[in-house]
Amino acid sequence: MMRVRLLRHRPDGLLGVRMGVMDTGHWVLDMDGRPTGAAAAVILDNTLSASLRTNVDDLHWVVTTELHLNFMRRLPADGTVLEAWTRTLVGDEAGGMATGTLQGPDGIEYVQGTGWFQRVEGNTSEGPDRFEAIARQPLGDEEGASLGALLAACPAAPIMSGGRPDFTQSFLPGLGFARNDLLRNSRGALHGGALMIMAAFAAQQAMPDRTGYDLQSLRAAYLRPAFGAIASRTHVRYAGSSLRVVEVELFSDEPGSAGKAFVQATAIFRQAR
Predict the structure, then answer these.
(1) Do 65 and 97 form a contact (C-beta atoms < 8 A)?
(2) How many domains, the chain?
(3) What's 56's domain CATH number?
(4) What radius of gyration, in Å, describes the C-alpha atoms of the chain?
(5) Rounded Cα distance, 250 and 117, in Å
(6) Residue 192 has what pLDDT?
(7) CA angle, 230 as apex, 173 and 256 as ends, to 5°?
(8) What is the DSSP string of 182-204?
(9) What is the phi-psi region of residue 132: left when phi exceeds 0, alpha when psi lies from -120 to 50, beta otherwise?
(10) 52 pairs with which residues across the strands?
(11) pTM of the complete model beyond 0.90
(12) Are 125 and 108 a contacting pair, CB within 8 Å?
C-alpha cells in the first residue's frame, strides 16, 4: 500500500529509529497532478504505531485514535526512497503516543507526524503478513495512476442524514470513494492512513481555487472502524487570502450506518509558494 515497507527494529531510546521506507512515484500525486504530503499518511500511521508497540511490553495490537501531520514541503515523485524515523513519547498497557518524521536520504524532512493509539484485542498474525504482502507485490496498472485514482475517488456524493444536525447542517457534499479491499488494515477495516488521505482530498476539492494553496497540516480523529464505500461532507470554516481551514467528515453509505461519521478531520492550507 503506497509502496510502504516496514522494518523490524528494537527500540533505541529517545533518539528514534528507522521504522519503514516508502518509494515515491506517481502515487504521491493529488487529484490535480501535484505531489502531496498527504501520501505519507500510510507510512506514518504504520510506523508510529509500530514504534509504540515495539517500546511497550505486551502491547501487541493498537488502533489509531488520532493522527496529526504537518507538511514542510511537497513529496518528491521521482522514485526517491523516503525514510520514517519515529520514537515513542509515552506508552503503557492501554496505548500511548509516538512521533516521527518522513525524510529523504539526505536528511531533508518532508512530513512530521504525531499519533495517539489505543490497545485492542482479538487480532491475528495473518493481518500484518497480508498487509506487507500487498506492499511487496510488483507494480501493475497503478504505476501510472494518481493517488486519487488509487483511492477510487468519485464525484461529490449526496449528504446523508445522521450525526449532530447543529454540526452537519452547514456541510456540503464531498468526494466519495468506491470500495477497495486493498485499502484494508491488518484488522480488516479501512486503513487509517488511507482514510486520512481521503479526508485531505475531500478538503482540497472543497476549495474552487485549491491550486493556489498547499496542505499545511491535517488532524484526524478516528471515531469508529470504517468499511465499504466512503462518502464525505465538507465545510470551509475559514477562507482568507493566505490561509484556509476546511473541516471534513467521512462516513459510510453502508446500510445501518445512518450517516454517522467515523472520521472527523481538520485541514489547514497555506498559500502556495
Answers:
(1) no
(2) 1
(3) 3.10.129.10
(4) 18
(5) 20
(6) 93
(7) 100
(8) GGB-TTSSBPHHHHHHHHHHHHH
(9) alpha
(10) none
(11) no
(12) no
